[in-house]
Amino acid sequence: MKKLLSLLAVLSIFVTSFSDLNAWTIRMTCRSKGREIELCKKAIDEWVKKHGGKHKVEIVTLPHASNECFALYQQWLSAETFDIDIMQMDVAWIGVFSDYLYHLNEVFAPNEIDTDDYFDAVRRSMYTAEGDIVALPWYTDCGLMYYRKDLLEKYGRAVPTTWEELYETALYIQNEERKQPEKKGKFHGFLYQAKAFEILTCNFLEFVDSFGGAIVRDRTAVVDGDAAVNATMFMVKCINSITNHNVLNYSEEDARGVFQSGNAVFMRNWPYAWALMNEPTTVVAGKIGVMPIPRSANGGKNSGSLGGWFLVVSKYSKHPEIAADLIKFLTDKVQQKYRAQYSYLPTFKSLYQDKEVIDSNPFFAEVFDSLNNAVTRPSIEFGKNYSRASSEIYNAVNTILTQSTESEMTKTEARRLLNKLNKKLARLLNKADKKAPKKAKGESMSLWDKIKSIFGIK
Q1: Whole-structure pTM value
Q2: What is the pLDDT of residues 364-386, one digit of tens each?
Q3: Is residue 92 part of a domain?
């Protein structure tokens, strides 16, 4: 009994000292798009204050291009680095990097995270195939179509419901606006992002889905089907008439800059752009409407690519428990409600019924329906090969569009190029992942496991 009491006394001292750890510095990545850095710093300051200023957080700014962020993560994680504790991660990457992520179940109680309030697609993205939580959703995203309400009213045009109506309206208003000398050659009917990186995969997916097609269906590559070919030819038609050729190098911010300066009728972008474009100093403030991605009149449905960013803890972090506490704070309902006033879509469904949230973002009601019907990138189907698959998609589509601006792109040639892409995707779908999960060096242990290890308790 004395030995047991002595052991318990030692354990008590150990637990007390463990809970009173020295100050730690957490390193976290964050993108610079829109207000992300600003909002991230504000929330982090609140968390640091909550902990009495004990810990510090350093923000590592990520490149704007998603594929560059992905390449950095590949480099860091494959090197088994401890330099980054928390990573901001695209929803499509979680399955790719799951072997390198800390299992949050080790620190969170079973019902500590209100997963029932998440959108279904968001909730599914949090888990590994074995059912372990490895990511917490920071905000979600869905592709939307912005339009100039004032210009539609000026020219007596209704809000389009199909791509064909959008094309006709965009072409008409573009030609009328270009009659003004200062807008000749500078005003465009429709903008989106066709740069050869992840955003083009999202855009292409929306076009194909809205024409009734798919990139992958029932684990079979179908990107050379009639609907996908028709969607591609519509993109070709647009870029040679109503779309600025510069979109071939546009990311989200590039498109926003042109639209926000008053030089376009329609623009496909993410919800974050709403608040920025409605700042009082902008040319288009109060003149913007939002609608779902339109459908084709010949089949298909309203679309919108599901996006969103999660926060994850690296499996190689030296202090994953405190890092997990930080991402829990950053992603909670209070922080998401605050971010919502800047048009970052909450992942909690209940916030779409919150009066303050809706008053600051009237278009959220439209977005709610889009989120429930959003089309998802085929990251689950491709698994660890998703990055390669996405690269094949956006490079092929960018090539088709670029060639179409230099010479005629026939439907036959487009189908041939999509068939070539389809064969590559089929091989990636069929490719077995022979790599066994890599065990991390310094793999994190729960508090009880650490105690048992130190004292030799079985």
Answers
A1: 0.80
A2: 887 887 787 789 899 888 888 99
A3: yes
